[in-house]
Amino acid sequence: xxxxxxxxKVVPYVxxxxxxxxxxxxxxxxxxxxxxxxxxxxxxxxxxxxxxRLYPDTDSTMLVKxxxxxxxxxxxxxxxxxxxxxxxxxxxxxxxDSGKPILFxxxxxxxxxxxxxxxxxxxxxxxxxxxxxxxxxxxxQPNGGVIFPNPNAPxxxxxxxxxxxxxxxxxxxxxxxxxxxxxxxxxxSCLPLLEKYDNLLVVQTFSKSRSMAGLRIGFCIxxxxxxxxxxxxxxxxxxxTMNMPSQVMAVEAVRDxxxxxxxxxxxxxxxxxxxxxxxxxGFTFPDSRTNFIFASHKSVPAKEIFEALREQDIYVRFWNKxxxxxxxxxxxxxxEEMDTMLDFLRTFLKDR
Length: 352
Ligand SMILES: *Cc1c(COP(=O)(O)O)cnc(C)c1O
Description:
alpha/beta, Aspartate Aminotransferase, domain 2, five-stranded mixed β-sheet, four-stranded antiparallel β-sheet, binds pyridoxal-5'-phosphate
């Protein structure tokens, strides 16, 4: 037997590229175009360098308490991790251990099937309806757990909380994870449903709406029981997940609620304006409630537009995958960045 026969093999997730060019316009990974809250910068500048000798707080006590206060839950209902990817991966290992297939949409965050494959969790992809909304009936088949983003990515579509509740109602015996990575851009969080469903886990991130993708901060909120199980697994893999600077800066980001609200409001305003201009340019898209638009052009293939934009150092996301290979996911940047993109498209798409 060769050693390679005993390797855990998996086809990894492919993240959006991170080019580093001077004047590029980066609209491909849904980062926030604005800096983190001003207090975060101050903390970075005044960071006690000597403290880096020490291990960080394994429980991220301050951050957990800050998030609990902010969302009106108990600290024992909050779990934090190194980006929501870390939180989600830990949740997959912890909660999807029945051997039965878990359910998620066919068009969704493309990390879900990677974690399922890695942890040997069977899964069924539930096709979205033609209007790209969830097909709720498909989430009522026998399963070992459910996960979906709300709003969904890359469609940008938000499902009403009545839809989320219908799925929860049909799945009381398994864990249901709602990935709310984009909820701060005009969606509505299903956190209030925690009072009725102790099998619901709500996952959020600091990477998009809180401008801190580089620090890798994510969290989830659920019943105390669920959070205990998550911590048991986390403390069986790596106790010191979140580094000290991230913990300290994340607390400050949550405290500055006015800044957070102004940034998300600005992005929503830009998004709504860009929607109108893109319609005039011949694009169609599901009605996004996120910080991106998932657009197709009436006559020019997405791949062609993607490549033309790339030539201009304007980076957007394109997947050469069935059902979505004529769409571009365009992150909402600053007004100026969006205008540069729209100006180029106006010329490029003229008479087409
Ligand atoms: C961006 C994203 C995440 C991961 O974000 P982190 O940077 O790891 O916090 C998770 N789910 C969805 C749907 C996302 O778009």
